[in-house]
Design brief:
The chain is α+β, with helices and mostly antiparallel strands and 167 residues long. It has helices at residues 11-21, 23-29, 35-38, 41-50, 109-119, 135-143, and strands spanning 2-5, 52-57, 82-89, 92-100, 125-131, 147-155, 158-165. A 7-stranded mixed beta sheet has the order 1-2-3-4-5-7-6, sandwiched between helices.
């Protein structure tokens, strides 16, 4: 797998991946009425402009410059199978929308994406959040050195847990 910065031309594909990848989160709540499933392309473009979005593509297919790697490359081989976002504000890097295509989960790709975004911000405090229902996400983050530092009840059914790493 290759991880590199996404281009603006990748954002629609990343948004489509987001709609697919966050179905499992929606299932935890029994509703599709969650922010990642309602986000628009314009909102993703704003996040792109404010920070960095990484994409993960298979080794075969397109390279990180968007050019095909040879005659065997195909659109299918070049598809984006993972992504993560980060933006720095006041010395803290906020990481969000870590996603892996459902067909590729359980292979360490989430850890690879998390490590790649962290490397772009050496020596910075890193912060992210997830729902307390997202036990697999919490396990992934804690395995990668994140520690819970806050919890916020949003409503009777939703509590966010905030995790940090660094400084």
């Amino acid at each position: 797998m290759r991880i590199c910065k996404a281009d603006k031309e990748d954002l629609n594909e990343i948004l489509q991946l987001q709609y697919l990848a966050y179905q499992s989160e929606a299932a935890l709540f029994g509703t599709k009425d969650i922010p990642p499933l309602k986000q628009t392309l314009e909102e993703v473009e704003a996040e792109y402009d404010a920070g960095v979005i990484l994409k993960m593509i298979p080794d075969e297919g397109a390279n990180c410059d968007g050019e095909a790697d040879g005659a065997s490359a195909s659109t299918e081989g070049a598809r984006i199978i993972g992504s993560v976002r980060g933006r720095e504000e006041s010395g803290t890097v906020y990481i969000g929308k870590l996603m892996v295509h459902p067909d590729f989960r359980g292979r360490g790709l989430g850890t690879a994406l998390l490590t790649a975004i962290e490397k772009l911000f050496p020596g910075k405090r890193l912060e992210l959040f997830t729902s307390t229902r997202s036990v697999d996400n919490i396990r992934l983050y804690e395995k990668n050195g994140y520690k819970i530092f806050d919890r916020k009840d949003i409503d009777d059914d939703l509590t966010f847990v905030y995790l940090e790493k660094g400084l």
